[in-house]
Amino acid sequence: MREYKPSEPRPTLFVNARLVCPATGRDETGSLLVDGGAIAELGPDVPPAGRADVVDCRGAVLAPGLIDLGAFMGEPGAEHRETIETASLAAAAGGVTTIVARPDTTPPVDAPEIVDYLKRRARDTASVHVHPMAALTKGIAGVEMTEISLLLEAGAVAFTDGPRSIANARLMRRAMTYARDFGALICCHTEDADLIAGGAMNDGEFASRLGLPGRHKAAEALVLERDVRLALLTGARYHAGLVTCAESLEVVARAKQGGAAVTCGTSIAHLTLNENDVGEYRTFFKLAPPLRHEDDRRALVQALADGVIDVVCSAHDPQDVETKRRPFAEAEDGAIGLETMLAAGLRLVHSGDVPLPKLLAAMSTRPAELLGLPGGALTVGAPADLIVFDPDAPWVLDAQSLKSKSKNTPFDQARFQGRVLRTVVAGRTVYAYG
User: Fold this and answer.
1) Report field, pTM of the whole predicted structure over 0.90
2) Residues in domain Dihydroorotase catalytic (predicted)?
3) Is residue 99 one of the residues assigned to a domain?
4) pLDDT digits (tens, 9 = 90+) for 252-270
């Protein structure tokens, strides 16, 4: 494989491509011309451009670049796990052209100057777009609300306390009221900290057989139910970052039917893996929320196909060897996922459970709409943030070949069908396979 460093982009004509755009419903064979970092023309009959470089896609899919909502990028404070540079390299290899970064760093992203620092670091070191989310409470302590208006002005695109739920309902209501007034999106983790305390995996028969303490899915549904009611009360825009069980999906579906501005997401791991994958205490499968029963996984897949789930994310959470190679109950939660999100998602397409445009919408179009970001569509004038991938190419993942600094992937040695061939950001090729 070879990596491409950004340079002044030349006009590029992509030919013999399957153009797939979830935003417009386009799915046809054709060409696409990129000029000046934007899409200049596309369709079945784009005339040749004399001064343009020509890329023959040979029937591969050309689609909007993926937008990953909620990845942990390490900086500042955890550069031993990941950096903005290494995360962006992993993203580019996985077809992700925009990363929305979590704020649970050290220090947390709870002040305008930290947002500014991240934007400058991304400008200097990242090969893809990076947009920071800001903390909803100061220090991510769940006690005092941050300055939402100032953080928005600094460039924050959403507000969250990362992997922590806010226990204080009064504080949550107040934060939602302020966020509503500024049109800001609140994106929350939904697990009751007291109910899950000490839990290591999904509560159920399998956990009992392994002798591990469980984290019951009721802890998720309870917090989500409260937050949805507060969203209805305040009129705020609310996004549940990771829903993982059928009960939570029922809560979201009712909220949407009731007219609430509520959306939800789930991770690619929860869509394609279940609690049985933990096997013999395999800590790379220890996630938060935990992998659920197969019935819940199937419910998530159906909810994605039905449009109840709006967003699919990587839940990228790099951990080093020392924190993962411990007894299961003591190991840190989390897995990397930027580089494998699309490949794992294509399993759902090949099984016939989710149409390709629906999967791409959840990984690109809907995140762009929710966050007000450019991208997510193949339209004239849109940013040329693009991916070319062969949905049928077989390959086996070798964790050591991943671009991420940490290697804690649950997909090591997994067989995939579908590989990213090229990633383009603002008209520049930032990754190419081969």
Assistant:
1) yes
2) 59-247
3) yes
4) 999 999 999 999 999 999 9
